[in-house]
Amino acid sequence: ATVHGRLQELEGQHGDLRAAIDRTRALIAELDTMISEQFRSTFAALETRFDARFQQLFGGGFARLLLTDPNDLASTGIEIVARPPGKKAQALAMLSGGERALTAVALLFAMLEVRPVPFCVLDEVDAALDEANVSRFTAALRELAETTQFVIITHNRGTIEIADALYGVTVGDDSVSRVISLRLDEATELAELGRDTVAVGPGIASV
């Protein structure tokens, strides 16, 4: 009787374990389906916004995002194909340094548009851009600044000019580093009142 009772107990535990395994597998399948659907919808939205931002920053052309293995979303890679105005479509590695930088910025801006974040830090992303590209870059930056606060480390005058506040580091005669800051709206008001303004060199621009 003791052995029979023990057998029934083990069979009950085995049944519970099998049921738990089945529920877990069903949950995994459900999550896989959900993740795949969200990935595909997010990827489609990102590709659309990436192409739009690319055209904005380059003044034309087009860009595409391609999955290296569309049938296996868990391990697929992503390839970027871009065609700047006046050039043929080619892989990212074949673009010039400035074109690669601007394409990367277009992808970053597209990501921020699809999935906004509270703030974003950009470090010298405009270093390889010419004057025309900087103008388009700052215009796109201003649009995104409506929902995301940007902290930009830059030495580019065009980028600095569209900032709301400037922060820089200076070294005095005593060799001591000091952080200086300036809000441009306050500086404008002071200038209009005819007062002295503070000169700030390149540094971190908070947009």
How do you describe this structure in short?
The chain has helices at 2-58, 97-114, 131-144, 157-161, 184-192; strands at residues 62-67, 78-83, 90-91, 119-123, 149-153, 165-171, 177-183, 204-206.
Shape: elongated
Give the rounded overall mean pLDDT. Answer: 85
Structural class: alpha+beta
List low-confidence stretches: 195-207
Strand content: 15-25%
Order of helical and strand elements:
HEEEHEHEHEEHE
Number of strands: 8
Summarize the biggest pleated sheet.
5 strands, mixed
Q: Order the strands across the largest sheet as they lie in space.
A: 4-5-8-6-7
Q: What is the count of helical runs?
A: 5
Jot down its keywords.
207 residues; alpha+beta; five-stranded mixed sheet; three-stranded antiparallel sheet; 5 helices; 8 strands; 20% strand; disordered C terminus
How are the SSEs placed, and which strands pair?
Elements: H1 2-58, E1 62-67, E2 78-83, E3 90-91, H2 97-114, E4 119-123, H3 131-144, E5 149-153, H4 157-161, E6 165-171, E7 177-183, H5 184-192, E8 204-206
Parallel strand pairs: 4-5
Antiparallel strand pairs: 1-2, 2-3, 5-8, 6-7, 6-8
Helix pairs in contact: 1-2, 1-3, 2-3
Task: Describe the protein in words.
- It is a single chain.
- The chain is α+β, with helices and mostly antiparallel strands and 207 residues long.
- The chain is 50% helix and 20% strand.
- The chain has five helices and eight strands.
- It has helices at 2-58, 97-114, 131-144, 157-161, 184-192; strands at residues 62-67, 78-83, 90-91, 119-123, 149-153, 165-171, 177-183, 204-206.
- A hairpin with a 6-residue loop joins strand 2 (78-83) and strand 3 (90-91).
- The protein is elongated.
- It starts with a helix and ends with a strand.
- Mean pLDDT is 85; it is low at 195-207.
